[in-house]
Q: What sequence folds into this?
């Protein structure tokens, strides 16, 4: 029950405009929400570290622009550090580099390159289904497709959640007693 309460608390309240690899293309917005559906491939080679490749789609909206939610497709690579060795779930920190295409299917059409840092919680719902609420600090570099205008990076603090399928390849060699 504590895990469910924590996950709900992290996913309900959002403090910023741009999110993870998907982003809100109107700069300097605050108080936004984000939700993503993803597929990820996580490769573990060390007891506390993994490399995660993921792609998906999501929605981002701002409480200042309630009538302009934007939708996007995203791809990213993420280096993760878990706090407990060989567990690859629960709390971890990560650095990522992602790219996304965002649109409102009307006026907004933007590409973005988004580097950032995150604090995450990985809840393993089933063997392959995960829920990952996160707190992210990113620097979205975006380009308007129609106007061909590149926006100057503006740091963004985001709370969001990713839900989807995760494929973990654990190549960590177990410790042997001698």
A:
């Amino acid at each position: 029950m504590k895990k469910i309460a924590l996950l709900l608390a992290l996913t309900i309240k959002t403090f910023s405009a741009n999110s993870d690899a998907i982003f809100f293309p109107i700069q300097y917005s605050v108080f936004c929400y984000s939700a993503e559906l993803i597929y990820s491939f996580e490769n573990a080679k060390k007891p506390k570290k993994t490399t995660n490749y993921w792609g998906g789609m999501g929605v981002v909206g701002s409480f200042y622009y309630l009538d302009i939610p934007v939708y996007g497709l995203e791809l990213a690579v993420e280096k993760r550090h878990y706090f407990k060795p060989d567990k690859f779930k629960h709390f971890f920190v990560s650095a990522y580099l992602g790219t996304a295409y965002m649109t409102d299917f009307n006026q907004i059409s933007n590409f973005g390159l988004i580097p950032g840092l995150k604090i995450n919680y990985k809840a393993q719902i089933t063997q392959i289904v995960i829920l990952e609420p996160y707190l992210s600090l990113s620097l979205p570099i975006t380009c308007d497709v129609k106007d061909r205008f590149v926006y100057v990076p503006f740091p963004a603090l985001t709370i969001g959640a990713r839900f989807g399928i995760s494929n973990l390849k654990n190549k960590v060699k177990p410790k042997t007693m001698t």
Remarks:
- Residues 3-19 have pLDDT under 50 and may be disordered.
- DSSP finds one helix and nine strands in the chain.
